């Protein structure tokens, strides 16, 4: 068996396991009020486990087969005896799912020939098999008791008792009508008590007829599943992301090359009316091609959101809190590479929200709130960005507590603490090692989580903001670009070098004909911007050289780009603004890797290379240098 074939199957197995997790969580939610689980849901779960078992056996993954088979047996019992559902049974299924995920992940990274790789897995399988065996014995005893009762009832053969008729039907002693047998098979959920023993008895020791019928049912289910897959195949196909990346690179080259041809200096002064019409049509087609290519990498964020349901469930159980997760906007699409990086930030934020934000049921009751806390997870598209919001209705952030911790860590003095805005106070939460938790637990308390959130989101060229009202709850808002492959940028020039500033970081651009500069000391200048004084720099200073603004009293005939990051503003001086355009980001050469403040490079329509600035890092570095 080729390794590539195994890996491709394991990818499909992951999708099946994701579906199982979704259905198990649905199972749990739908039975919280004591309702019986739906037969259709059990059939779906059974089918997923059956598929995983069957396909894994084909690839020789014996551990997965054994685990899925044991879970399948348990589900078979529930399918025929839904009234036997309990929390213990559901936990068995969820734990089996966890072990299956571990086995699939291990087989992907460190193939072990399909065997178990931990003692814990073997012990759990034994435990699950023991439970199935105990069920089998219990059912056998129940059936024997039922048989004895039926034997006694045979003495009443000529009675008109209704129950007697049912016994006759069950054993087929006095009728050749096959219909009653069919009725027994589908009578799993009837209230007829006499039918249940026969069905239970058939759980582990099926008659050949029942086996044949059930096989037909499974085949029909599989056929139905295959039919569904065929329908999906008509709409979707699986493509290697490397091929998509290659396609995007080629389209990016076309986007770059197009203006180099249509706006070439050799034809700029020629009157070529037909050429310009055709060039305009070409621009339009290339724009469409670019948009379609980018859309190929866009996937719904639902995949990440659905994984949060399990996180909320497990964290709530560990903390003893009641939590309801409300998801909306899961159809919002975003670049696949960004989605993959959003999982960790969301895990940290939601885990913190449950562990620190939401109160215990008693605390909530005392505060006049419902005992069940709520976390809302929402995604919306706003222009070229996707906004992901995590909102809880917990106790909110304590400004005093955060400030006291910041002061104790030496991050701020007593006098400064009093004048800080709330947003500046919440910002301390993202400081590495910052935590106000009284004790460290296995969930949180080390001050690592939110540090990771900001680091990951910043890497994606995104922002994370916090809003909180004490006693009412906290909201984390993450803003990330739709895609990292192409950005909208402002192209500017300083001397012979071209730079690109991401449009999202640009607050305003302005032409300065003659404006006084305030020099506080060397390399530290400011300029009047509306009603405030803001720092002003030239690009040389940002890359470690002395500023060209030193010893200048005024700024003459220059362009100032006002940039903004976390409500901190800084003006950067350039000689010329070429305008806004879509920028295809190219990886930066290793030679420039050590230069802080560069996010990448690109080729401009005029054929020149352009350096893409990491504006937020530049602002942070400069403001740190002038305040220390």
Automatic annotation (TrEMBL):
An individual GO BP term: chemotaxis
EC number: 2.7.13.3
UniProt cross-references to InterPro entries, sorted A to Z: Bact_Chemotaxis_CheA, CheA-like_dim, CheA-like_homodim_sf, CheW-like_dom_sf, CheW-lke_dom, HATPase_C_sf, HATPase_dom, His_kinase_dom
Modified residues (Phosphohistidine): 50
Isomerase found in the keyword field: no
Keywords in alphabetical order: ATP-binding, Chemotaxis, Coiled coil, Kinase, Nucleotide-binding, Phosphoprotein, Transferase, Two-component regulatory system
Stretches assigned to the HPt domain: 1-107
Domain named Histidine kinase: residues: 281-484
PROSITE patterns noted in UniProt: CHEW, HIS_KIN, HPT
The reaction(s) this protein catalyses: ATP + protein L-histidine = ADP + protein N-phospho-L-histidine
GO CC list: cytoplasm
Gene Ontology MF, one: ATP binding
Coiled coil residues, start to end: 3-30
Any one Pfam family match given in the protein's UniProt record, by short name: CheW
Domain CheW-like: 486-624
Annotated function: Involved in the transmission of sensory signals from the chemoreceptors to the flagellar motors. CheA is autophosphorylated; it can transfer its phosphate group to either CheB or CheY.
PANTHER family reported for this sequence: CHEMOTAXIS PROTEIN CHEA, SENSOR HISTIDINE KINASE CHEA
Designated name of the protein: Chemotaxis protein CheA
Protein source organism: Leptospira perdikensis
